Amino acid sequence: MNTYNIALIIIGFILQALFIKVEHEEKYMLADILKGSASLMFVLLGYDAFTRVNNVFNKQFFIGLLFGMIGDILLNLRFVFKKNGQKIFLVGILAFLIGHIIYLVALIPQARAPWLWYCVIIGAVAAACLLAYIFKTMDVKPAFKIFGVFYLGAVFIMTAIAIGIALFVPSTKATIYAIGAVLFTASDIVLIFNTFSGVTKFSLRITNLTLYYIGQILIACSLFF
Q1: 3-state class (DSSP) for residue 145
Q2: What is the distance between the alpha carbons of residues 91 and 165, in angstroms, rounded to a whole number?
Q3: Residue 198 has pLDDT above 80, yes or no
Q4: Residues 50, 59: contact at Cβ < 8 Å?
Q5: Cis-peptide into 170, omega within 30 deg
Q6: pLDDT category, 157, cuts 50, 70, 90?
Q7: Which among 11, 75, 20, 73 is positioned nearest to 44, based on CA atoms?
Q8: Region of residue 198 (left: phi > 0; alpha: psi -120 to 50; beta: else)
Q9: What long-range pairs does 7-11 form, CB within 8 A, spacing at least 24?
């Protein structure tokens, strides 16, 4: 990584902090612009890594980061266009789901049997337990339930495989990516509880967005190793 990459990271965190502040002030259009700009920073990081090492793995991860940026923009557009907020939110989740499927496609060839299947099972069981708790304790609309099953399933399985690769095929790339994936997953859990529990807290919103952004930056940075 060079000065340009470090500058992208610093600018990204500044934009993300400004986004959190502006969103809390309910200036939603400006907030979405700031959010998209912050996301652009981790996309540019991924692009720089991809152009340095032009292989299928880095290309797939760069595309995954692109879908992350699209998801970011859409999730916050729901506050701008409140009438269609639910539909926009679901399309945003779909964008993130596509990104995670792309990550899975990239990760699976790096994994090895039989522990690959153990990771898949562990990830699926963890997602199922969380979903069962959510559906039992929170008021979630059917459309969100359907998307939630596929989305959380993909996220937890992807994270479990990433951890497995870091443990059984250790490398700097695998470790950094696994940490990023864990933070991304943690941010989703915080987002779910803050969105559907019935009690929205600004402190949890800050936690959700901070974990998410650090996770995405780490995922992008892993491509340099």
Answers
A1: helix
A2: 30
A3: no
A4: yes
A5: no
A6: very high
A7: 11
A8: left
A9: 8/41, 8/42, 8/44, 8/45, 8/48, 9/41, 9/45, 9/217, 9/221, 11/41
- Could you give the CA distance from residue 12 to residue 6 in angstroms, rounded to a whole number? 10
Contact yes or no for 64/106 (Cβ under 8 A): yes
d(CA 107, CA 159): 10
Cα–Cα distance list, 195 to 64, 120, 156 (Å) = 24, 27, 19
User: Is the predicted pLDDT of residue 54 greater than 80, yes or no?
Assistant: no
CA–chain centroid gap for 171, Å, is 22
What type of residue sits at position 57? Answer: F
Token pair for residue 32? 């979405």
Share of the chain above pLDDT 70, in %: 100
Flag whether pLDDT at 110 surpasses 90. Answer: no
Instruction: Report residue 53's pLDDT band, with 50, 70 and 90 as the boundaries.
Output: confident
Tokens of residue 127, six digits: 């997602």
For residues 97 and 144, is the Cβ–Cβ distance under 8 A? no
For 66-101, what is each residue's pLDDT tens digit? 999 999 999 999 888 888 888 898 999 999 999 999
Handedness of CA 65, 41, 219, 76 (dihedral sign): negative
Nearest to 216 by CA among 56, 27, 71, 80: 71
The answer for residues whose C-beta is within 8 angstroms of residue 69's C-beta and 6 or more apart is 36, 39, 40, 42, 43
Say how far apart CA 146 and CA 139 lie, in whole Å.
14
- 89 close to 78: Cβ distance less than 8 angstroms: yes
Going from the C-alpha of 181 to that of each of 140, 151, 174, the distances in angstroms are 25, 14, 10
Q: What is the pTM of this model?
A: 0.92
